């Protein structure tokens, strides 16, 4: 039986005040239940969720196939160490491989862990004197120290030094600047193919193709952090598939287990053996619950034709938001690929997020001025319209 929940939002906020470390800015709302594109708070208010679990709930809240798979698995086998085999982990790896570039998988529990695995792989794969990794301004790779250092944004570094040695930062979408930074000690280029936290920034096709070429010329690993873009978010399985550029490594988390915790790093069969036994591990990585949820997630996307549906929803969002932009001077630019949507404003986005919340729509603001939507692929066209109407009203209210 689920733990009985009876506290109001105000009481829950007070409980947190006493017992939970205040490292997050949180809205004073206690959420108690989710179903597909909606969540409910303890006062019974229903919210339309256009920022589903930081993008993790790509299939909406409590997707039925994932719920059913997990309910059965949790009573069968939850976790065994990675000193054994489970069919589920093998089948999950096979499914990810068949939908990407045919390589092999390492499993972990989060995005930052997937990136740590990629950083280690890059250094292990390279000759001993090569260890530098070039990452990109405005990028985001996670919160462990390696990934924090890889994140080329000073605001995430304040007070944390000394950081991990060997990271070199380059401007995003500037190929010449990357070429200038490569030297005899460089072993990898690591980039989000579309920057998420950095404000939904989409690079040119030439830039990513150019990175591939530089990587080939200098024998560098090309690592794509697809933690946010991966697993269908952009209307393709992986964002790299939009650009016709195949990386050597991709890192995944967020949506890959349909809302449960899970992470993975994929690489080619040639490179994979460099992550040799004893050099890396993750206790809970690829556990049976994550694996069955991961498999059910991929099956749901396929069986419900959600990639195609996401492309249709994306076109609808584009039309709606560009129409809104034409009459709303607060909107500077609309950027989207699939259901990864950034609306760049001329003002700070905080008040717009608040105005949406008051109208029962959940959205996010990133990089100060960008309203970011990471809605579920399971939205109906009507819900897209409803949400866009609310967003229009919210923008109207802050400009008045
Ligand atoms: C969210 C995110 C991460 C970090 O994922 P965690 O699961 O929070 O560690 C890394 N890279 C990108 C691109 C992300 O969006």
What layout of secondary structure does this protein have?
Layout (H helix, E strand, L loop, with lengths): L8 H11 L11 E5 L2 E4 L4 E4 L14 H11 L12 H13 L4 E5 L2 H15 L6 E5 L8 H6 L16 E4 L4 H7 L4 E6 L13 H14 L2 E5 L14 H4 L5 E4 L10 E5 L20 H16 L2 H22 L3 E7 L2 E6 L4 H9 L2 E2 L1 E3 L3 E4 L7 H19 L1
Parallel strand pairs: 3-13, 5-6, 5-7, 7-8, 8-9
Antiparallel strand pairs: 1-2, 2-3, 4-10, 9-10, 11-12, 12-15, 14-15
Helix pairs in contact: 2-9, 3-9, 10-12, 11-12
Short précis:
About 35% of the residues lie in helices and about 15% in strands. By secondary structure, the protein is of the alpha/beta class. It folds into 2 domains: about 10-60 and about 305-400, Aspartate Aminotransferase, domain 1, CATH 3.90.1150.10; about 75-305, Aspartate Aminotransferase, domain 2 (3-Layer(aba) Sandwich).
Description:
There is one protein chain. The protein is an alpha/beta fold and 400 residues long. The protein folds into two domains: 9-62 and 305-399, Aspartate Aminotransferase, domain 1; 77-303, Type I PLP-dependent aspartate aminotransferase-like (Major domain) (Aspartate Aminotransferase, domain 2). 37% of the residues lie in helices and 17% in strands. It is built from twelve helices and 15 strands. It has helices spanning 9-19, 64-74, 87-99, 111-125, 145-150, 175-181, 205-218, 240-243, 288-303, 306-327, 350-358, 381-399; strands at residues 31-35, 38-41, 46-49, 104-108, 132-136, 167-170, 186-191, 221-225, 249-252, 263-267, 331-337, 340-345, 361-362, 364-366, 370-373. The strands form three sheets. Strands 4-10-9-8-7-5-6 form a seven-stranded mixed sheet, with helices on both faces. A four-stranded mixed sheet has the order 1-2-3-13. Strands 11-12-15-14 form a four-stranded antiparallel sheet, with helices on one face. A hairpin with a 2-residue loop joins β11 (331-337) and β12. α2 (64-74) packs antiparallel against α9 (288-303) and α3 runs parallel beside α9. The longest helix has 22 residues, at 306-327. The protein is globular, with a radius of gyration of 21 Å. The protein starts with 8 loop residues before the first helix and ends with a helix. The structure holds pyridoxal-5'-phosphate (PLP). Pyridoxal-5'-phosphate binds at residues 110-112, 115, 140-142, 192, 196-197, 225, 227-228, 253-254. Pyridoxal-5'-phosphate is lined by residues 110-112, 115, 140-142, 192, 196-197, 225, 227-228, 253-254.
């Amino acid at each position: 039986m689920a733990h009985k929940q009876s506290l109001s939002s105000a009481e829950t906020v007070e409980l947190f005040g006493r017992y939970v470390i205040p490292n997050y800015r949180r809205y004073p709302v206690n959420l108690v239940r989710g179903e597909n594109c909606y969540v409910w708070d303890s006062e019974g208010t229903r919210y339309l969720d256009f920022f589903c679990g930081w993008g993790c709930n790509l299939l909406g809240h409590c997707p039925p196939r994932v719920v059913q798979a997990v309910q059965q698995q949790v009573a069968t086998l939850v976790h065994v160490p990675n000193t054994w085999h489970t069919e589920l982990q093998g089948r999950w790896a096979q499914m990810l491989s068949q939908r990407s570039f045919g390589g092999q998988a390492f499993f972990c529990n989060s995005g930052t862990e997937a990136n740590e695995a990629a950083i280690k792989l890059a250094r292990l794969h390279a000759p001993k004197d090569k260890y530098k990794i070039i990452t990109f301004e405005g990028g985001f790779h996670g919160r462990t120290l390696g990934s924090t250092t890889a994140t080329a944004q000073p605001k995430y570094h304040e007070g944390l030094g000394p950081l991990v040695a060997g990271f070199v930062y380059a401007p995003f979408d500037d190929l010449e600047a990357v070429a200038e930074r490569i030297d005899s000690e460089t072993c990898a280029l690591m980039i989000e193919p579309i920057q998420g936290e950095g404000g939904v920034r989409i690079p040119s096709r030439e830039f990513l193709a150019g990175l591939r070429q530089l990587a080939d010329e200098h024998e560098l690993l090309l690592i794509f952090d697809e933690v946010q873009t991966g697993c269908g978010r952009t209307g393709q399985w992986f964002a790299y598939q939009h650009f016709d550029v195949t990386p050597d490594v991709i890192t995944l988390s967020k949506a890959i287990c349909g809302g449960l915790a899970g992470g993975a790093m994929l690489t080619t069969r040639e490179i994979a053996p460099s992550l040799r036994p004893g050099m890396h591990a993750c206790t809970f990585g690829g556990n049976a619950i994550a694996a069955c949820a991961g498999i059910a997630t991929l099956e749901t996307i396929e069986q419900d034709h959600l990639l195609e549906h996401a492309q249709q929803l994306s076109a609808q969002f584009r039309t709606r938001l560009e129409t809104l932009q034409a009459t709303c001077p607060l909107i500077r630019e609309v950027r989207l690929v699939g259901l990864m949507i950034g609306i760049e404003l001329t003002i700070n986005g905080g008040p717009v997020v608040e105005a949406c919340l008051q109208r029962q729509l959940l959205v996010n603001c990133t990089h100060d001025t960008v309203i970011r939507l990471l809605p579920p692929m399971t939205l109906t066209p009507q819900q897209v319209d409803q949400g866009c109407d609310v967003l229009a009203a919210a923008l109207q209210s802050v400009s008045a």
